[in-house]
Amino acid sequence: MTYFAGIDVGSLTTEVVILDKDDRMVSYAISATGANVTEAVEHTLGQALSRAGLARDRLNFIVATGYGRITIPFADKKITEISCHAMGAHHLFPDTETVIDIGGQDSKVIRIDGEGKVIDFAMNDKCAAGTGRFLEVMAGTFQVPIDDFGALSLKSKREIPISSICTVFAESEVISLIARNEPAEDIIRGLHRSVVSRVWGMVQTVGVPGPVTMSGGVAKNPGVVILLEEHLKKPIHIHTEPQIIGALGAALFAKKHFLRD
Amino acid sequence: MTRKEYLVKQKEMGRHLLGVFPAQYPKEILWAMNIVPAEIWDPPLEITLANAHLQPTICSVVKLGMELILQRKCDILDGFLFPHTCDSIQNLASVINDYMKTEKPCYFFYHPKAPYGAAGRDFYRNHLKELIGSLEKQFGPLDPDTLKQRIHQGQKISALLTELYDLRAQGELNITNEEFYSMIRHGEYLFPDDFIPELEAFLSQNKGQGIKGQARVVLSGVLPNPPEILTLLDDLGVRVAHDDFLIGSRRLLVPANDLDDPFENLTESYFAMPPCSTKGSSIGERAEYLFRLVDATGAKGVIFNVVKFCEPEWFDIPNLKEELKKKGISTLSLDTELNQGLSGQMVTRVEAFVEMIG
Ligand code: SF4
């Protein structure tokens, strides 16, 4: 049996997906990237291999992706996360025409064709606005666990718009609103709106989307998903583990390159 | 020899040096008056002093130019020339000349913006004469025969650069992207007597088979900075097949004309230049120019590599991208600082674009 691995080293988490030759996901693992990329990769790959019951030498081809892809010397090939998210999303939801990936340090909107190939993309990589990091910082300000932040926004009865785009200024704006005793859920809803507005701007630069798949950790945030669906006027495809889509795409590329080579 | 060493040598040879800000100006007139134009685009300086005079949203071409003056690195120059390229350069000229009151003489060159008419041509012709009049007060009289000879040299340079661009477009130049731009940018300070033989030697040494099978792109923008963009494309095996750079084809590839009157000749050359955001060319003309470059070279996409906060360029880009998209041409836009390298995300965007068109 041949096996393929995709390793996605993101700014916050590292994911590994192992596929068999029939594209079946044999195992996956997710862990925090932390300050040492090499350790994070070794640890996550080790976990995925042990869950699959495989030794490392059973992997026939490894593709690395994500911002830390350059630091994986044993990868057979390096491919950008843009191509990998596209391929992974297409594999899970073949009708996907647009992938929205809101990651830790950047967000991307990717238009893909019927084979999962990228045809256009937009990327917000200049500042934290419109990224998962923005929500994380704000959740910290409210001392709310990030996993509960989105759900809290859904309780809002009267959304309070946040005018600052910059994370630092938005934080001071939020602090003044808290000082005025504005309800937390209303402010939080406004913060989610701010992220979604940035992402929606990018969606429009790559054109009107057909079926949309969301990848990345923020896809688990219902506050963001609902607001995006409001804009799209249709539901978004979300996998139970949206974080592994990049690694899955990398593993699919690994198989493709192995067969081609 | 470095640019600085070259300019010092020119000065020792008795030539005058004029610091010239971007982008289009009648070089031939300066050459004919024994003036070496030393163009100021991207001096490798850290911006510290200029920030006190300019708001943060000014492009780094302007900021670095001012920094060069404030750090007193222009002492060797005999003056400055400010072409009216954009509002930022125009205002830089005011700040330096009117408010900072530099002791160096400042000259201004206004060129007509599109759409062009007969009045624009008259204006341009007269303005050339006005520029000569003001330069003569400092540098002495212009000899009409020398001007004709310098115009001839200007045409020779355009012809050599056109040959260089054509060979590259056909994949018949055996050099890297980085080597190509390093060569053409020597023209930003070399006197024609030196630039012509250098270009001829470069052409004869490098004519030959380029690397086959490379993905090809057209670059658009002001200049190919940061230089890492070129080395990244080289590393990715991507060939820049043509460019629509302000520093490049938009002002270098001037079609030849055989008009005997020097003012008619220079006027004709200016109006025959390719379209440009800084000359108010329409989106239609600019898009048409880009289509032609893509068609002629078989490029798979266009990368807009644009200086951050460059208003003339950024205003055009959404519409240009739209037009290119309609024709199925892939595009990527990057907003870059001149000398600050490429961030990891910027590299990812370029790599993803290459994967996309590959
Ligand atoms: S980069 Fe743009 S804004 Fe700056 S000087 Fe050049 S044309 Fe003007």
Query: How many DSSP E strands of chain A?
Result: 10
Strand order of the largest sheet of chain B: 2-1-3-4
**Which stretches of chain A are low in confidence, meaning pLDDT under 50 for 5 or more residues running?**
none
Specify the number of helices of chain B. Answer: 14
Strand order of the largest sheet of chain A: 3-2-1-4-5
Q: Which architecture of the largest domain in chain A does the CATH hierarchy give at level 2?
A: 2-Layer Sandwich
Shape assignment of chain B? globular
Share in β-strands of chain A: 15-25%
Which structural class should the secondary elements of chain B be placed in? alpha/beta
Return the CATH topology of the largest domain in chain A: Nucleotidyltransferase, domain 5
Describe the 3D structure.
The complex is a heterodimer of chains A (261) and B (358). Chain A has two domains: 1-93 and 240-261, 2-Layer Sandwich (Nucleotidyltransferase, domain 5); 96-238, ATPase, nucleotide binding domain (Nucleotidyltransferase, domain 5, 2-Layer Sandwich), CATH 3.30.420.40. In chain A, 42% of the residues lie in helices and 21% in strands. Chain A contains eight helices and ten strands. In chain A, the strands form two sheets. In chain A, strands 3-2-1-4-5 form a five-stranded mixed sheet. A five-stranded mixed sheet of chain A has the order 8-7-6-9-10, sandwiched between helices. In chain A, strand 7 and strand 8 (118-124) form a beta hairpin. The longest helix of chain A is centred in the C-terminal third of the chain and has 22 residues, at 184-205. Chain A starts with a strand and ends with a helix. The mean pLDDT of chain A is 91. By secondary structure, chain B is α/β, with parallel strands linked by helices. Chain B has a domain at 3-139: Rossmann fold, CATH 3.40.50. Helix content of chain B is 50%, strand content 13%. Chain B contains 14 helices and eight strands. Chain B has helices at residues 3-12, 27-32, 60-70, 87-99, 118-139, 144-169, 177-184, 192-206, 228-235, 249-252, 262-271, 283-297, 311-326, 344-357; strands spanning 16-20, 35-39, 80-83, 106-109, 215-221, 238-245, 301-307, 330-336. In chain B, strand 5 (215-221), helix 9 and strand 6 (238-245) form a beta-alpha-beta unit. Chain B is globular, with a radius of gyration of 20 Å. The two termini of chain B are 39 Å apart. The A-B interface holds A 67, 79-83, 105-106, 117-121, 123, 125, 205, 207 and B 318, 325, 330, 343-346, 348-349, 351-352, 355-356. The complex binds iron/sulfur cluster (SF4). Iron/sulfur cluster binds at residues 22, 59, 61-62, 85-86, 88-89, 222, 278, 307, 310-313 of chain B.
